[in-house]
């Protein structure tokens, strides 16, 4: 503050000095407690609102409230106040005893304060770098003189640190949206000078690259740096780029709309060296991040919408110049931030959005899943967390069937889930909340799966096994910036986990555990439980609470039922085996495979032949060989098996579905409708189809079929005609059922290529969940 007044012709003191005059300043602080705006406490007008972007309803309400307080003369009672003493120099640039206000500006090497007094703004440089920017603005204002499209302030250098600017805001309105007026102004500003150059000859860009190579700031998220390097490495140095004159900080808070004309302030960053459309991108992106708090997904959507209205660049050109905007703007500000001792929260917002925006240019070499993993760890970069059993390679190299276990507080876990839900790469986020963790399943736009376990407490059933606060305190950071649970804590967790589950420690971890866990520690489950129960977090009321949460968690996620139908030879067994493995490894859900029905009741022949003989005969006999012609016998057989379905479905639901398992049926009730002969039943289809109405409907039903020739090459159990007839019956049945109930999936799939079939099935599950 003293330096500000020194450059305006005053000296300030906190204590009275000979010849000094007492004065009181009122002020409004930043969230961190530093002064944001201050003014003469005797001021009768809230001139500090000249610096405030009152474009939103919330901002307007604040402005109206402030103005109301000043009208009632309550400002001295409302705002914080500090008494200081001043001595005036020979030629002060403003009257300190009159109405005035000062905005302290953004902290950093380019810091400048803004004074408003006697209908003029004064930009006051606080550093040598800021002084250069003030002089650059003075020269830029000479270049960008008024025309029919926009207005600029008249300017005068008061001294080498202070630039005087006329007030062109009167009668104007700030708008937090890029209008046609803004768009036409951007084009008009660019007309001052345009040029085309090779990237190799673009000095401004090459200087930024050089500065970036020497950047060494641990505060910058590692994956943002890696993404920048990847995008830069993919640029053709012989590529032509259109450059044009730009304002450089063309934002809603630097513009006023006045009678269909734009009044524009803050020309200090104006340059002839920036890529075409720089101001266009800057307005939308800065406004989206800092004012509207939008996700990159919504910002990019707005860019495309505004482009269609204002510029109509084709997609290729739009993405090309968006890329060069992001590179030049990000590289430029990373250099500034590296010189800034303390970072304000807005810097983290900007970095988070920039790193996500760069994904657009990396999809050729990286999958969405890989880029999302990078985004996750950049999002967590300044958050207390630690990964458990995570590899030491680049984070995105995580194996396709692997998940990420993260020790993190519930509060920060919720923030991460919000971030994931808004991420432009994500189609769907499914969250399962348990007492000790959030289980998060993420589906990308291209149906790739990423699973996260966000663990707030390390527990085994009803016992807490380790203190997560201590685990976080001991965390380590690898060279990719990923925080990991320490080796000692990881070994301790593995030791407890496998012994409590009475499982052998995998060979992969045996040596690791023996190196870090005291060999004297017991491996006996009962003794481990006894020791854990002596811990404070497992005693008394906490123990009761843990038991309650364990019981509640056991039923926190329901499973669902899938059925696979088709003639023998259609490939059901192979598909079921593959789907089962994919669900367990990639979808991370336990699977139970059942054949044909719940099997609460045995097959009928068990009652006459005995269990072993009946099952052996069933295995050895060919399908559809029964010769039952009796309606009574058929009705009895159907009633018997239908009873199994009616009663068994509840057992299956309670035993598996309610406890989170995915049940796969190899054949299902549909055989009684489309192929009753297989079960040696001869009944009208109206009976078997009508009875289906009373069953719990499986969530997913897949009918697999193939050309008769292909099926006969696999199995010769059915005739060509039978295959054709049954395929028609199943297809018509599934089509009919699909129309009746849109909430249940009935899908017919031609099973010619296994990978295609599996993709169709998994994508159907993913899209529905």
UniProtKB/TrEMBL annotation:
Coiled coil: none annotated. GO terms for molecular function: kinase activity. Keywords: Kinase, Transferase. This is Thymidylate kinase.
């Amino acid at each position: 503050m003293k330096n500000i007044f020194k450059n305006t012709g005053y000296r300030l003191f906190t204590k009275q000095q000979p010849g000094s005059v007492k004065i009181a300043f009122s002020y409004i602080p930043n969230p961190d407690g530093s002064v944001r705006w201050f003014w003469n406490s005797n001021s009768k007008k809230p001139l500090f609102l000249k610096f405030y972007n009152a474009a939103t309803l919330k901002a307007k309400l604040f402005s109206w409230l402030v103005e109301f307080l000043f009208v009632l003369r309550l400002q001295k009672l409302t705002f914080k106040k500090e008494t200081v003493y001043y001595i005036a120099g020979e030629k002060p640039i403003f009257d300190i005893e009159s109405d005035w206000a000062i905005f302290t500006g953004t902290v950093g090497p380019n810091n400048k304060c803004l004074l408003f007094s006697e209908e003029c703004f004064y930009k006051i440089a606080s550093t040598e770098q800021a002084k250069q920017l003030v002089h650059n603005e003075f020269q830029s204002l000479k270049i960008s003189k008024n025309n029919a499209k926009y207005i600029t302030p008249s300017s005068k250098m008061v001294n080498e640190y202070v630039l005087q600017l006329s007030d062109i805001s009167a009668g104007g309105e700030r708008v937090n949206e890029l209008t046609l007026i803004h768009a036409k102004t951007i084009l008009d500003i660019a007309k001052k000078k345009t040029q085309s150059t090779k990237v190799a000859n673009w000095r401004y860009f090459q200087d930024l690259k050089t500065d970036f190579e020497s950047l060494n700031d641990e505060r910058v998220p590692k994956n943002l740096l890696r993404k920048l390097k990847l995008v830069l490495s993919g640029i053709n140095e012989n590529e032509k780029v259109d450059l044009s004159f730009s304002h450089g900080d063309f934002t809603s808070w630097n513009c006023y709309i006045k009678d269909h004309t734009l009044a524009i302030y803050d020309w200090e960053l104006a340059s002839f060296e920036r890529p075409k459309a720089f101001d266009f991108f800057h307005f939308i992106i800065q406004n989206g991040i800092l004012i509207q708090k939008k996700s990159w997904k919504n910002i990019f959507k707005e860019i495309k919408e505004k482009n269609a209205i204002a510029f109509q660049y084709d997609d290729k050109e739009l993405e090309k110049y968006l890329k060069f905007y992001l590179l030049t703007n990000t590289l430029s500000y990373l250099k500034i931030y590296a010189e800034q001792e303390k970072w304000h929260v807005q810097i983290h917002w900007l970095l988070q959005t920039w790193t996500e925006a760069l994904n657009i240019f990396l999809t050729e070499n990286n999958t969405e899943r890989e880029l999302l993993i990078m985004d996750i760890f950049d999002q967590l970069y300044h958050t207390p967390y630690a990964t458990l059993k995570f590899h030491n390679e680049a984070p995105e190299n995580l194996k396709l069937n692997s998940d990420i276990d993260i020790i993190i507080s519930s509060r920060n876990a919720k923030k991460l889930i919000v971030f994931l839900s808004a991420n432009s790469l994500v189609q769907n986020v499914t969250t399962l909340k348990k007492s000790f963790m959030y289980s998060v399943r993420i589906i990308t736009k291209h149906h790739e799966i990423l699973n996260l376990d966000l663990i707030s407490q390390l527990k085994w059933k009803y016992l807490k096994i380790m203190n997560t606060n201590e685990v976080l305190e001991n965390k380590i950071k690898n060279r990719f910036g990923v925080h990991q649970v320490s080796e000692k804590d990881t070994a301790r967790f593995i030791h407890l986990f496998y012994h409590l589950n009475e499982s052998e420690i995998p060979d992969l971890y045996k040596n690791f555990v023996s190196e870090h866990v005291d060999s004297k520690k017991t491996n006996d489950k009962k003794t481990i439980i006894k020791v854990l129960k002596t811990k404070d977090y497992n005693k008394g009321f906490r123990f009761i609470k843990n038991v309650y949460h364990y019981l509640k968690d056991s039923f926190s996620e329901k499973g669902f039922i899938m059925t696979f139908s088709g003639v023998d030879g259609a490939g059901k067994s192979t598909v079921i085996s593959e789907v089962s493995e994919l669900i367990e490894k990639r979808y991370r859900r336990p699977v139970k495979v059942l054949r044909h029905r719940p099997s609460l009741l045995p097959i009928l022949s068990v009652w006459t032949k005995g269990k072993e003989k009946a099952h052996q005969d069933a295995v050895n006999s060919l399908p559809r060989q029964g010769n039952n012609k009796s309606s009574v016998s058929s009705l009895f057989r159907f009633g018997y098996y239908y009873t199994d379905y009616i009663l068994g479905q509840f057992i299956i639901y309670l035993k598996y579905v309610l406890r989170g398992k995915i049940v796969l049926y190899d054949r299902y009730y549909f055989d009684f409708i489309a192929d009753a002969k297989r079960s040696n039943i001869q009944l009208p289809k109206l009976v078997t189809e009508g009875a289906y109405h009373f069953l719990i409907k499986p969530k997913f039903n897949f009918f697999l079929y193939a050309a008769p020739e292909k099926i006969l090459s696999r199995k010769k159990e059915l005739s060509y005609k039978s295959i054709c007839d049954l395929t028609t019956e199943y297809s018509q049945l599934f089509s009919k059922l699909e129309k009746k109930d849109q909430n249940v999936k009935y899908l017919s799939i031609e099973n010619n290529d296994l990978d295609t079939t599996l993709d169709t099935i998994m994508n159907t599950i993913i899209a529905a969940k």
